[in-house]
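Writing this down once: the sequence line spells out the residues, with the fold written below as integer tokens. This is how one looks:
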Amino acid sequence: MADKHSSGNKSKDFSCSLSGPNIYTPNGSIKEELEDQNLWPRSLARKWIGMLFMGTCLLYCARMTMPICAVSMAATFNWSKIDSGLVLGGFFWGYCFTQILGGHVSDKVGGERVLVISAASWAVITASTPLLSYLGSHTLAVMTVARFLMGLLQGVFFPSLASLCSQRVVEGERGFLMSTMHSASNLGTLLAGGMGSLMLDRYGWESMFYSTGFLAGLWALIVWQCFLKGSSDVTPKQMKTRKDSQWGLSRTRWLSLFKKPPVWAMVITHMCMCSTSYTILSWLPTYFKESFPHASGGVYNIIPWLIAIPSALGGGYVSDFLINQGYNVASVRKIMQFFAMGLSSMFIMALSGSISFHSAVIFISAAVGVSSFTSGGVSVNVQDLTPSCAGALYGFMNMMGALMGLVLVSVSGYLIEVTMSWATVFSLITLVNVTGLGIFIIFGDARRVDLEIYSQDSVL
């Protein structure tokens, strides 16, 4: 028999299902439930998920534009490898700075508007990059600053999405929403690589920036006109409730929050997951090129990410299905994370031996595919624990994950250079994954902790 939800109410008691029939709240009033929690109705939720899917896809298309065009731009402007690395690295430094701020603002004013404003801004920067590159003789500095600004503006996206998910989507549907966005990021990476190669050959590197920036700007305009113009994120009653119960970024409350084992367990696990994903993404092409020099790059650069798209959707569906069937939310999160970090590590370690090219593609595709199950695990756990400040806390998690990713990518490069062995890197990835998974299994939970801390602070 399924375990009961930790809060005592099954998720299927909530209304607003995205795929199933109307499910009434315990008192039988869907309308009151929607007003109290400010949730999307089912029809509106479907429209928003479609738009957010396209927005996430375009986000990654824009993010990958510079890496795809870097070789052509380096030839045009006579950049060295160090120069190219400086331009590409500017994005990640900017990306770390606005994670917490973007999530905090989204918690306060609503994630929809933050997403649209940021998208319009980075769309302008993307489309104007070719023009900026020909202004004066300091092209390297200008491009580095442009990438830094791109990172700043895109850094608010996923924290805002986490905030939006906690405010607008019921618990039993959050895994599918986040997994859908995860699959959109893989699709964006694939489209940028496939279409980018064609556009580079036919129309030059400038066309990639123009087209991506235009489409992103068009997306922001459509969302504004069709969803946000003339509307208010919250009613006066909901605004009053949000002001009364929502957290500020006070040091006391943050310290109280991080004294809770489920919170710091979630943060550490997310850091481990992000850093290993960044490492695989960064070094995977090099591994295949050195281990199988005659293999087609189109195979190992495309197949793993094609597998990840349906895998992410499937993982999100399974997690939500289990929750809606009444299984304990914390148990579901841990099961999904076991697949994302535990099972994927088994496939990664299989790459250490002497294997054929086809076996390597199968193993890495399986590893990337099951790692996407984190969308139903730790990636959505922040909305279980702290929905009142989910955006700000997710921003902190993402910032720490990006910083740890930079460190792990660098350490992996050092190990490859010194040991001349990929097995060492795969062992390091496995160690980080197992450490994060163990912490999450032991200390992870899904019960709200923010209201408890807020009540204690109010009494004091």
Notes: Residues 1-36, 235-247 have pLDDT under 50 and may be disordered. The longest helix spans residues 42-77. The CA atoms of residues 28 and 121 lie 43 Å apart.
